[in-house]
Amino acid sequence: MKRRSPSPRTLLAASIVALLVISQLPERFIGWVGWFRSPLMTIIAPASAPLSRLSSGLRPGEHLPRPDTPEGELERQRDEMALHLLRAEARILELEELIRDIQGGVPYQRAVGVLRVEAMRAGSSPAAGTIEVARGRTHGVVEGSVAVSRSGQQLVGIVTSVGASTSTVHLVTDRRLFPNLLEAVAIPEVAPTTAEQLAALPRMQLRPAGNGTLVSPEVGVNQAQRMQVGQRVRLDDNTWPSAAAMLVLGRITSIEPLDDPLFRRIIVTPEVDPSGLRSVILFIPSEGGGGR
Amino acid sequence: MNWIAFAIAAWVACGLEYGLKDAFRLGQTPVAPSFLLILGVFVCLWASPQALMAACLVVGLLLDFLYLQQVQGTERWLTVPGPHALGLLLGGYAVLNMRGLMFRRNALALAFLCLVAGALMHIVAWALLYLRGVWGEPVFGGVAGELGYRLGSAVYTGVVALVVGLILSVMRPIFGFPADTKRGFKMP
Predict the structure, then answer these.
(1) Which tens digit of pLDDT belongs to each residue from A134-172?
(2) Which residue among A47, A163, A260, B110 sits deepest, i.e. has the most Cβ atoms within 10 Å of its Cβ?
């Protein structure tokens, strides 16, 4: 007997029911669906990457100093040295804490190395607050890798999803970043030269405001008085991967009084627009385990 | 319908959707046009009912796979297939019913239908994702704000469709729609 194939109407009804059910299934049942996104992104990337570069040109996120000008090169070297110095000071503080922990019986964990890889932007999703970059699992990218701008060591975001050849970076300015409280330290024009000076600098807890800035809603007036508009603010947060330590979050653009005279509101604006970058540098933990 | 032409057009639309969305967004808001939606509605204007439903499912699924959903309060991201596909299916059905009343060759018709289909798609997608959040993982916090952004994007898509529609109308013969391939009655 000849077998009848299902009619288009039946197929459509079955598809609707299947999609309706799948869309409501809990995460543990639809986790496998995410696998299909990776090949899809690989197919789409050749079309989206050039357009994404065009998009960065139309709406530039950063103005790179021309490498052939001596000012630009000096500026880059100064930023690099400042980062190394601040990281070294932060490391001293961390090691002092580690010694105390070891003396208290806490087991020692080896530090993780960092691999730097440049990644071109391949797309963006403004609604999700993410950008897609053209480096993935095959290039060694892992979840928890840190994305940094090419100029000025601006923290761009953190890799939250890794495909075969593309990765998704959740931008630091997105309100849904988790955890969305960033411990930061305001660095004066003359960088601190000792770990003690670094430890004594004014600190704040920043959260993304949703308009491209970071806000510390309540900073004690004593701390706020030691901050100035224009000061650079750097990340000093243990919940972030060590590769993100002392990266730039932005500059203080406003110190506003509140109804309560004991507190001030600090607004920090990133030096580059993380969503408009043409490419980023990924800081990848070289021994895996770049968790937060 | 020429499905190879549709596949190439969908690939280009995906590139535009994911590559140019940031350049077109309104200020710092996520309100941005959807090029895939424009392609979907364009196909709905001209294709046979059977082909347009299949095209709507494909375009909707592409949207679902392109945009990850973040589980609120975590850094876990999900691919949720269905919300946009079902939404666009409803939008496509609305276009199918309305296209007879429209002057289809006019770019304004495409723009208006993009607005209608986009609004329907986003309402369905928003409702399904919200429902999912009720008993599962919530994927957005501000319920009204999310719907507002989505409807804003539908309006913006309609505006952009005015320009994109002109390009698509030039390319229409490549798609091999029934209206372009069927010849009128002719005396032997």
Answers:
(1) 888 888 898 889 998 887 788 999 998 888 888 999 999
(2) B110
Prediction pTM value:
0.81
Mutate: best of A28, A55, A211, partner B, most B CBs <10 A = A55
Give the closest-approach CA distance of B16 to chain A in angstroms.
6
In this complex, the residue of B11, B22, B80 whose CB is nearest that of residue A30 is: B80
For residue B184, the model assigns a pLDDT of 57
Q: Residue A178 and residue B25: Cβ atoms within 8 Å? A: no
* Range name among A31-45, A78-92, A176-190 with the lowest pLDDT average: A78-92
A residues 116-155 near B, CB within 8 Å?
A: 122-132
**A33 and B11: CB-CB below 8 Å?**
no
Q: Which of A48, A159, A292 to mutate to test the interface with B (most CBs of B within 10 A)?
A: A48
Interchain CB distance below 8 Å, B76 and A27: yes
Confidence of residue A290 (pLDDT cuts 50, 70, 90): very low
Residue-by-residue DSSP string for chain A: -PPPPPPHHHHHHHHHHHHHHHHHS-HHHHGGGGGGHHHHHHHHHHHHHHHHHHHHHHS-S--PPPTTSHHHHHHHHHHHHHHHHHHHHHHHHHHHHHHHHHHTTPPP-PPPPEEEEEEEEEEEETTTTEEEES--GGGT--TT-EEEESSTTBEEEEEEEE-SS-EEEEETT-TT-SS--EEEEEEPSS---SHHHHHTS-EEEEEE-SSS-EEEEEEEHHHHTT--TT-EEEE--TTS-GGGTT-EEEEEEEEEE-SSTTEEEEEEE-SS-GGG-SEEEEEEETTS----
